[in-house]
Amino acid sequence: MNRRRIAASLAFAMAATAVSPMITEASSNFDLRKKVIGVSGIMNTGNLNLSVTRGEFASMLVNASSYRSTAGKTSNTSVFADVQRNQEYAAQIRIAAEQGWMNGYLGGNFKPDESITLQEAVKGVLGLLGYVNSDFTGDQSGSRLSKYHFLELDENLNKEALEILNKEDCINLFYNLLKTDTKAGTMFGKSLDCELTSDGEIDPFSMVDNSIKGPKVAKSKSRLNSILPFKLSDANIYL
Fold first, then answer.
1. Phi/psi at 159 (nearest 5 deg)?
2. Which long-range contacts (CB under 8 A, 24 or more apart) does 180-184 make?
3. Which residues touch 133 (CB under 8 Å, ≥6 apart)?
4. Is there a contact between 113 and 55 (Cβ–Cβ < 8 Å)?
5. Lower CB density within 10 Å: C or N end of the chain?
6. Separation CA 189–CA 40 (nearest Å)
């Protein structure tokens, strides 16, 4: 009886030893992904379990694109009936719609506060890669999802077409996007100064702007807010 208990204990210990490095590696890999996306400025990487709205996702698409430097806080026009020109993400929603990355709904609405689904997100990231409607035949949504899987944009992202995405899902999706070649054949992340390490992952240090001179001394929070080109509450700080 004792031998059986000892054997069972040894088997459990061996199994635990085998699984632990895998868990640690997965955690380390996500920490890297989170850091890269935080440094890139594509999105705020806090509150990972929160679902992402269509308005927020439009902002992420623009932040990952060449339009990131030209998008203002407000839009010149109201493209959708439910998105006023001075509303949050209005400018990003206008750009995402004009570029064909996202669609509105019948009746002229965008539904910016509704959660983004994988199917909608896939259309957006494929649009960033340079793919257009004519690249997909038959069932457009199904063809796009097939392309999404073929390009391995689904790495570490286990969601079905109509499931909604949370912030952790979006970190994985945009990290995969950065490593993926565009339709023209160049790595998408090159536009954000991404470089791959020897193990095929993105090096976050290659994305840091080394031309910045400093330090700048801020003796108060208000002074710091005046220096930073973004809200302090939205900052991700890494040492």
1. -135, 145
2. 180/129, 180/151, 180/152, 180/153, 181/129, 181/151, 182/129, 182/130, 183/129, 183/130, 183/131, 183/135, 184/130
3. 100, 140
4. yes
5. C
6. 10
Residue type, 135: D
> Which residues fall within 8 angstroms of residue 200, CB to CB, at 6 or more apart?
179
**Does 123 have pLDDT greater than 70?**
yes
Q: Would you state the structure tokens that stand for residue 230, as one six-digit string? A: 């973004």
- Given a contact cutoff of 8 angstroms between Cβ atoms, the answer to whether 187 and 199 are in contact is no
How many angstroms separate the Cα of 35 from the Cα of each of 46, 151, 160? Answer: 11, 23, 26
Tens digit of each residue's pLDDT (9 = 90 or more) over 161-170:
999 999 999 9
Q: Of 147, 158, 108, nearest to 125 (Cα)?
A: 147
The position carrying tokens 């259309």 is 123
